[in-house]
Amino acid sequence: MESILLIMSLLCLLTGIFRNSLAPGKYYPAVFAVVCALFVLLAGRYAVQVNKLGVSRAFSDMGAMQNLHVLITLHLLFTLGFAASKMQKTFGLERNLFYRIVEYVPALLVFPALFYLHLVLLFSFPGVSFACVGGVFAGVTLLCMGGGAYLFRAAVPETELRTELLLIAELLLFVLMLCTTIK
User: Fold this and answer.
1) Model's pTM, two decimal places?
2) pLDDT in tens, 140-166
3) 109: DSSP letter
4) Which segments of the chain does DSSP mark as H helices, in order?
5) Is the pLDDT score of 9 beyond 70?
6) How many CB atoms lie under 10 A from the CB of residue 157?
């Protein structure tokens, strides 16, 4: 179960990078990367207070997993609205206010995924100071979330293809979510 959650967290970060590459404006990915890095730094004091047994117990609880499924479903609905907005903009169709607002909503699952990965890193490097692990992880987050979005935007300049890759990654995340409910 922990390996599936780790894969889901990494996939959430990948979809966050894909979504940032489609974000409106030049500076949106950089601002979002800074927000993610600050989140990692500020959430470090809460991540230190959690123990591995508590995390395992929380994810073995079916109620917690159902709450996670609701969050993933909401994230998927926002992503579908985001993709619809991008396609309407690409084809020159008139977009209503809802679709224009959805373009500025960040990927919802990036923050819980960053927190979970921070927990995994804290448990993976015993003996290393928590501040050092958090600082390095914040720097890697800044580079990956910001730089990854700009690199992906440069590597795949077509908006339609980036939108399609985002939807494929979200579909994979949804399938993994369904696999976690089967016992």
Assistant:
1) 0.88
2) 999 999 999 999 999 999 989 999 999
3) T
4) 2-21, 28-47, 52-60, 62-90, 97-102, 110-124, 130-142, 148-155, 159-181
5) yes
6) 9
Q: How far is CA 175 from CA 11, 39, 127, 168, in A?
A: 12, 28, 37, 11
pLDDT in tens, 11-54: 999 999 999 998 888 899 999 999 999 999 999 888 888 877 77
CA atoms within 13 A on the CB side of 52: 8
Placement of tokens 């990948």 in the chain: 14
Helix axes 130-142, 28-47, angle to 10 degrees: 160
Res. 183: pLDDT tops 80: no
Angle between helices 2-21 and 62-90 (to 10 degrees): 20
Tokens of 161: 């293809």
**Radius of gyration for the chain, computed over Cα atoms and rounded to the nearest angstrom:** 17
